[in-house]
Amino acid sequence: MTTRFHFRRRTAASAPILLAITGLTTPALADDISIYGTMHYAWEVANTHDATGDTTDDATGVNHASVLGFEGSEDLGDGYKAFFVIESDIGGNLGSNNSFVGIDGEFGAILLGQMDTPYKNATIDWNVWGDTSGDYIAIIGADAAGNNNFDVLAPQAIAYISPELDGLQFAIARIALKDTDTPGDKNDVAWSTSLTYDNGPLSAAIAYESHDGDTLGLGSTDAFGEDAWRIGAQYSFGDSTVAVVYEDIEHDDGTARQSRAAYWLSFTQQVGNDTFNISYARAGDSDVAGGDDGARQLTLGVQHAFSERTGIYALYSTVDNDRNAQYGLAGGGFAASGPGRDVDAFSFGIVHSF
User: Fold this and answer.
1) In whole angstroms, how far apart are CA 108 and each of 102, 170, 171, 315?
2) Domain 2-353 falls under CATH 2.40.160.10
3) pLDDT tens track of the chain, all 354 residues?
4) Domain boundaries, the chain
């Protein structure tokens, strides 16, 4: 039995766009220290459709999750190993991304530090346009208010990852939340768990996450809690791959408990060094009185690999919001300017890994 790690969101180990472009595999943890990184920049033209009309944002040299990382391990004998990862966003602070230390053995692995949650990692490898304007986090992981609180990097976490047995693996994490609502209350926590299957052409996952008190992600603080679950599968046949994710999020803002369901569909076709993809996500109306707060995201794009480490891509992604919805292109940082306002973007990017 082996332990499979999925905690490196923004490197070739777990960002599918980089895997598709470069064909890189996860660097093996070695007894010495390894240095790795990714340079990912893009030219983007986004339209946020504000109240006064279409507003176009033309930006070049946009940094999309470029990182520099260090990793290493030590053989402790008797089948045990200590390991660490220190990963930093380019332009950010040291250790601003996945950064943790752990012990690995026949029992599995225990990690302490800052890391992507099991809920996030459960379907992350299927997200073809991860860390771009076409990222599925525009819908998947976002609540009815458009806040993505369930596809995030978790600070102050302790996690357990089981050994892999015939493709099955279990993961669970406890995250201490920084309470900002109630002075002196330090007991807010989040729990995240997943069960994944990865064997040959078929991958499947089911995951659950709950926030007791403050939110874990980018939304406003929340003293009432929220939870989410998702289930999905991916299947490859020949040069084609299909994937589907279904998710339900419940969010309590103190006045009402909102529930919304969403799904994401993806079809990918490999043609030589080119990879074509079409993805569609749909967030249904929440059960709050008045509703009409659903949204749709459509992404079309192509990736071209020059080599194992260098590639380019072009994509177009659009979010169509219902009258009371405010979803944006979260992967590109393009928010809707108000309820019912649509967002779309064209991106051309270059990715180089080392």
Assistant:
1) 10, 10, 10, 39
2) yes
3) 444 444 443 333 334 444 444 344 444 445 678 999 999 999 999 988 766 666 667 777 788 889 999 999 999 999 999 999 999 999 888 988 999 999 999 999 999 999 999 999 999 999 999 999 999 999 999 886 778 889 889 989 999 999 999 999 999 999 987 655 555 555 688 999 999 999 999 999 999 999 886 656 544 455 568 899 999 999 999 999 999 999 999 987 677 778 899 999 999 999 999 999 999 999 999 887 677 889 999 999 999 999 999 999 999 999 999 998 889 998 878 888 788 889 999 999 999 999
4) 2-353
